[in-house]
Amino acid sequence: MKLLIKLLITNCLIFWMLIFPGHVRASEVACNDTLPQVFEKVSKSVVLITAIRLNPFSLSERISTSVGSGFIINSNGLILTNSHVVFGRPSVYVTLDDGESVPADLVGADPILDLAVLQIDAKGKKLSVLSLADSTLPRVGEEVIAVGNPLGLGQTLTRGVVSGVNRILPISPMSTMIPMIQTDAAINPGNSGGPLINRCGDAVGINTSVLMSAENIGFALPAVIIGGVLPELIEKGRVLRPWLGLRGQMIRKDELQQIFNIDLQDGFLVEMVEPGSPAEDADLLGGMLPVKIAGEDFLFGGDIITSANGRIIAEPGAYSDFLQGLTIGEKVELMVYRDGQYQTIFLTVLERPILPWDLPPEMCRTSIPY
């Protein structure tokens, strides 16, 4: 299973490299500004974001305020931040470096990448713009700083290094693996949405999450990925993704039949069928029997996808490759193994909607259309 995970990660990284081939070279630019000089250069571009939160399902304290960070990316008043800071919030305000607080409109949000774009009225304002690093990923060991507003205290700098690149968080579903930058620069509540900056003063990523059980292990969404989806996010308000509505994992019958006397085949084990999805419309079956094997969880009883559009789904990464090649509106032919027999099932790929598990916990029961 460890080999499977490694191959999936490699496969995911190759996918990103194919999309952004110019963004995988190590940086060769040396920047000699001191940290105070870098902070002075970038801090005017970093903003405090205050959002009103409404939880209609709470009996008390239905309305609360949350804070985060963001940074200005053009002189017209576009601001990057995290989706979880602003998405679905009835009211959002941005506090600029000079202390002025202005209302902001949500231009677009993508909860999967945890990325959002805000718009403020830039008329009469001379805004300082922070550039996204282009053409490179930061190198492991490269010095970086996180600038933001932890706990709403105001501009704060924390220093660290790039601890790793192309990190796949274990909580990521297989169909949405995202290579992240890992850093030991302290990222605290309120830093969400702020930039991770190199010594040249460019944003190499946007600070997104931390491991609460660890000491200074934070993650940033790389600028290379942000740059790839930003035009669509601004133009359409969302990132369009193909959707079948299946969740599960690859299985190998030889490994599992040594333990269980059950009828299996190599392929992708369907553990969950998402409501309203093409998979549900096609009557694909999810699992019913939870089993833990050597610390790994399986939900048996669902269909096993053995081929997709004529491609055999048997090797690690095969199903992930298939998903990444789909387009919205495409017709898909699946061969599934169910109750000892093979069946052919046809689906039409739809655009992936916002699903409950994409949203912050207090919003997971709220319908929020784009």
List the helices and strands and how they pair.
Layout: H1 2-19, E1 25-26, H2 35-42, E2 46-54, E3 63-72, E4 78-81, H3 83-86, E5 91-95, E6 101-103, E7 105-110, E8 115-119, E9 136-137, E10 143-148, E11 156-168, E12 179-183, E13 195-198, E14 203-210, E15 218-222, H4 223-236, E16 242-243, E17 246-251, H5 253-256, E18 267-273, H6 278-281, E19 289-293, E20 296-300, E21 304-308, E22 311-312, H7 318-324, E23 331-338, E24 341-348, E25 350-351
Parallel strand pairs: 1-9
Antiparallel strand pairs: 2-3, 2-5, 3-4, 4-8, 5-6, 7-8, 10-11, 10-13, 11-12, 12-15, 13-14, 14-15, 16-25, 17-18, 18-21, 19-20, 21-22, 21-23, 23-24
Keyphrases for this structure?
370 residues, alpha+beta, Thrombin, subunit H, Pdz3 Domain, 6-stranded antiparallel β-barrel, 7 helices, elongated, disordered N terminus, disordered C terminus
